[in-house]
Amino acid sequence: MNLAEASSTLRAAGCVYADDEARLLISAAGTPAELAAMVDRRADGLPLEHVLGWAEFCGLRIAVAPGVFVPRPHTEFLVREATALAERGAVVLDLCCGSGALGVALAAALAGAELHATDIEPAAVRCARHNIGAGGHVYEGDLYEPLPAELRGRVEILLANAPYVPTEAIMQMPREARDHEPLVALDGGADGLEVLRRVSAAAPQWLAPGGHLLVETSERQAARAVETVAANGLLARVARSEKMDAAVVIATRPAGGIYPGVRSDSDCGAISPAWTNLPAASD
């Protein structure tokens, strides 16, 4: 099978970037028979990254196995925002880590980062352990549940690429996502914010004073996501990238402590906690 034949097969199957995908498959295949099998798997709807066995993310090749959530290019924006906030040797926690792509990419950008990651899916945990290797610790379990107690109050950067697709919208997703990625990595509940509520409710217990929680969201959900996070005593704002079609909620545990109460910041359209005897916060 040559490039033209592979491209034709993929194009007929509905692959928008058939030529580019065919080139990648040809470069990855060891034999003509292997190439034919890979093209058939892709034409049948398996995500390209699952066929190749890797995804490109932040300039890195991240191993991705079948049944594991594929890191999206727009999520690189979250990593960029985290990199701008993180300091050398930061303690990083990657919740809902999937393949571990976010934590790996952030650790690669920082010197001496202490990386921890969790996921509830066994296949994702195996994949993350392969990608992270000796560079960190990967735990299997639900959100914070499997983490060692000594990590409480030490996390400086908390990454959470939590599922945020509303349940009723799952069937509108591309077939390769809804058929080949774990539902638990996609389904954010009735309004898409159920997992975020759980992440943000416990985040103050795990964040160090001044530590940051970064969560990907959709533009449509951004205002409610900020409200949800701020209700748990964190200073919250939204960072956006029109170029990458990305929105990230960034929430900070104040260094002076957490105080109840919520106020509306009309100038920035965000919701943040009301503080007592603390200087005004700035982004």
Keywords:
283 residues; single chain; globular; alpha/beta; two-stranded antiparallel sheet; Rossmann fold
Helical/strand content category? alpha/beta
Q: What is the total domain count?
A: 2
The assembly state of the depicted protein chains is: single chain
Strand residue content: 15-25%
Largest sheet: 7 strands, mixed
Helical amount: 25-40%
| Helix/strand order | HHHHEEHEHEHEEHHEHEEEE
3D architecture notes:
The protein has 2 domains: 3-44, no CATH class; 73-273, Rossmann fold, CATH 3.40.50. The chain is built from 10 helices and 11 strands. Residues 258-283 have low confidence and may be disordered. Helices cover 34% and strands 22% of the residues. Helix 1 crosses helix 2 and helix 1 (3-12) runs parallel beside helix 3. The N and C termini lie far apart (55 Å). It has 283 residues and is of the alpha/beta class. The chain has a 7-stranded mixed beta sheet with strand order 5-4-3-6-7-9-8, with helices on both faces.
What would a concise description of this structure say?
By secondary structure, this protein is of the alpha/beta class. The protein contains 10 helices and 11 strands.
Q: What's the arrangement of secondary structure elements?
A:
Blueprint: H1 3-12, H2 18-28, H3 32-43, H4 48-52, E1 54-57, E2 60-63, H5 76-85, E3 91-95, H6 101-109, E4 114-119, H7 122-132, E5 136-140, E6 155-160, H8 175-180, H9 194-206, E7 207-217, H10 222-230, E8 235-241, E9 246-252, E10 262-265, E11 270-273
Parallel strand pairs: 3-4, 3-6, 4-5, 6-7
Antiparallel strand pairs: 1-2, 7-9, 8-9, 10-11
Helix pairs in contact: 1-2, 1-3, 5-6, 9-10
